[in-house]
């Protein structure tokens, strides 16, 4: 038996509660952006993922404040079209959480979290030096999906990867050295140390495996 939920009948808060608790774990984008006046902003978003390659595309779910004020990250992406996505590992997880605090506008979140900002190569936003990976992004499109919700579609222009994380020959990441953190729901997060492997089978391999099982 399955519990059925007509999610259309729920209010916005309950829709978010249900969706965010089942679509897990989600990677965390610590987004750094810069206003046209040169003011840096750093804020975390877990409605984020890779969307494709050629071009390399990432998507970012943006939502306004509860009082309907537009968040600085959204404003900066709208006005400049440029931003950086800093991936979150165990080492900066607490700093990421501090950046989620709604500080007054005159307070810099990165300073409060003890994070260092440095220039990007191809976009005008800053990057977080302590992040294991940074993706420099330029806006492809900004889709308005609800009065207070937008989806930013961005092309990754440049990557910064901490030394020792990626094999330069195979371009494979060392997952044990990376230690990314995922978002669950509410105040719950997850590490990625407990892993298992399942290799994708070709049809011929699947047939061979199943014939062997049937013989047993």
UniProtKB/TrEMBL annotation:
The answer to whether keyword Flavoprotein applies is yes
List the keywords (alphabetical).
Flavoprotein, FMN
Cofactors named for this entry: FMN
Q: Where are the transmembrane segments?
A: none
SUPFAM superfamilies according to UniProt? FMN-binding split barrel
Q: Which SMART domains match?
A: Flavin_Reduct
Quote the Gene3D superfamilies the UniProt record gives: Electron Transport, Fmn-binding Protein, Chain A
PANTHER family (UniProt xref):
FLAVIN REDUCTASE LIKE DOMAIN-CONTAINING PROTEIN, FLAVOPROTEIN OXYGENASE
Say which family it is in: Belongs to the flavoredoxin family.
Q: What is this protein called?
A: Flavin reductase like domain-containing protein
Tell me what organism the protein belongs to: Microvirga vignae
């Amino acid at each position: 038996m399955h519990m059925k939920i007509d999610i259309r009948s729920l209010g916005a808060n309950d829709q978010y509660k249900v969706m965010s608790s089942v679509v897990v774990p989600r990677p965390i984008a610590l987004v750094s952006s810069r206003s046209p006046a040169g003011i840096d902003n750093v804020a975390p978003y877990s409605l984020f993922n890779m969307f494709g390659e050629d071009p390399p595309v990432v998507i970012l779910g943006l939502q306004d404040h509860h009082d309907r004020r537009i968040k600085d990250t959204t404003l900066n992406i709208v006005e400049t079209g440029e931003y950086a996505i800093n991936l979150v590992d165990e080492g900066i997880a607490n700093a990421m959480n501090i950046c989620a605090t709604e500080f007054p506008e005159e307070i810099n979140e990165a300073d409060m979290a003890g994070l260092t900002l440095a220039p990007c190569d191809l976009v005008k936003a800053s990057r977080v030096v302590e992040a294991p990976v940074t993706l420099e992004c330029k806006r492809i499109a900004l889709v308005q999906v609800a009065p207070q919700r937008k989806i930013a579609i961005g092309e990754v222009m440049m990557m910064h990867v901490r030394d020792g994380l990626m094999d330069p020959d195979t371009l494979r990441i060392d997952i044990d050295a990376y230690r990314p953190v995922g978002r669950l729901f509410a105040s719950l997060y997850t590490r990625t140390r407990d892993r298992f492997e399942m290799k994708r089978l070709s049809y011929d391999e699947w047939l061979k495996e199943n014939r062997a099982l049937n013989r047993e």
